[in-house]
Amino acid sequence: MDNRPIGFLDSGVGGLTVVKELLRQLPNEEVIYIGDSKRAPYGSRNKDEILAFTWEMVNFLLSKNVKMIVMACNTATAVALEDVKEKLDIPVLGVIQAGASAVVQKTRSKQVAVIATEATVKSSAYKDIIHRKSPSVELTSLACPKFVPLVEANMMAMPEAKAVVKESLAPLKGKVDSLILGCTHYPLLKPLIQEEMGPEVQLIDSGAETVRDISVLSNYFLISGSEREAIQHRFYTTGDPATFKAIAGQWLNIDDIKVEEVDLSQSQPKTKTLIVATRNQGKAREFEALFSDRGYSIKTLNDYPELPEIEETADSFEGNARLKAETIAEITGELVVGDDSGLCVDVLGGLPGVWSHRFAGPDPTDEQNMSKLLHELASTALIPERRTAHFHTTLVASMPGKESLVIDADWPGRIATAPKGEDGFGYDPIFLVGNGDLTAAELPFEEKNEQSHRGQALRKLMVELPSWLDK
To answer: What does the record give as the active site (predicted)?
Structure first.
């Protein structure tokens, strides 16, 4: 179970149609919603603007420690989904895939249409997915640029709305049996759209279909919310809070909904310094790969030549990590992460362990340490089951005046009989990963980051760090 909120983003109020369905299907989930009404509609903007605005909302949601992000905006999904998914380590969902899949399943005549913003239509996102799933389905795409301004102005019940819907949908009447509402604003006009298209036409709400995917991913990643007494949903807008509140309260049937106005340009996370208490550039690269997209500037002890050397005099991984992190945090006043990592070989009673870096003497090379370990294990060369081992990492995050955060992780494997591979550092060339035949030094950098003890610990740190910093 994971009671952190799910983050929703949209160019305005349209994404509330997805939230409404989520509250119905998944009542144990808490919602944080950001709607960029001030800069709506997104559909007529260029790709660079849409991508930049979407990232501003993503970063805003990340600052709220969300466990998943739902792009409840077809335009943002079409332009930015893949870029955001590639750079985040939490699940990120769009609304196009679900809507496209639903229309393929529900159409009878294979004559379907999607109405969407200009940017979504130009992206061909719906067309590509539908034709990949069912090449025989004929899709007509129609941009309806006047719909979003109607919804954002809360004019859904006014005569002008009916006239705009009638005029916009005229090219589709009598030609399709299913119509995708390819913008999450459009379900707020659903009664008018259904009236104009006729009762025989199925309206596919892409946002509502997406909630099923949210449920599946939550179960898969074991991050579903648990039943609890109080759930506090939070709504933010860059536009007029009163207009947003009127639409949200009516659509979600929440009387006391609270809406806060935000300025995304000022709420963007400023670059924060994170000092990694090491001079090892290999370790620094691993931190950089995972934390740079979170607004952190990664520094190492090489950037602070005036800092004293911290002797690793403790007899445990946590003790050594604390010594480094807490001492340097006290001197610099910055957020510092210290780690102590080591290789623990079962038949040696956990050695080299905390002495991994100096196993062969006071200041050995990696080659000398590996050579000594292989010598110690010489009698087990023909007995692989006696060469089991694991890498261990303890991370300690420290800031002045705060109780330190401690994270542990292990990476199981075996010791090879000879070094293999050109990448990695330390004992990587002789550490066979899991039950396989590749050493850690033979893995691609990204794959190693995904599996390694330090990669596991860093991902745990990313999850726990925001709430720890807020304490």
So the answer is: 73, 183, 340
Cα separation of 225 and 29, whole Å? 5
List pLDDT tens digits, range 266-318. 655 445 789 999 888 777 777 887 676 566 788 999 999 888 889 889 999 99
- The boundaries of the domain holding residue 103 are 97-204
Rounded to 5°, angle at Cα 291 from 290 and 292:
105
Candidates 412, 407, 425; CA nearest to 317 is 407
DSSP 352: B
Q: Is 417 annotated as a binding residue?
A: no
Q: Is 73 a catalytic residue?
A: yes
Q: What is the mean pLDDT of the chain?
A: 91
Catalytic residue among 36, 144, 183, 205: 183
Question: 293: annotated binding-site residue?
Answer: no
Are residue 316 and residue 411 in the same domain, yes or no? yes
Q: How far apart are CA 177 and CA 297, in angstroms?
A: 53
Active site residue 144: no
Q: Which of 36, 205, 340, 344 is catalytic?
A: 340
Residue 162: CATH number of its domain: 3.40.50.1860
Q: Give SS3 for 48.
A: helix
Structure-block tokens of residue 78: 């079409």
Query: Does residue 340 carry a catalytic annotation?
Result: yes
Taking the C-alpha atoms of residue 388 and residue 347, their distance in angstroms, rounded to an integer, is: 8
pLDDT of 173 higher than 60: yes
Pair (338, 362) in one structural domain? yes
Beta strands in 178-277 (DSSP E): 178-181, 202-205, 234-237, 259-261, 272-276
Find the catalytic residue in 73, 205, 339, 344.
Answer: 73
φ, ψ dihedrals at 124, nearest 5°? 60, 20
**By mean pLDDT, which of 356-370, 414-428, 440-454 is the weakest?**
440-454
Residues 350 and 261 placed together within one structural domain of the fold:
no
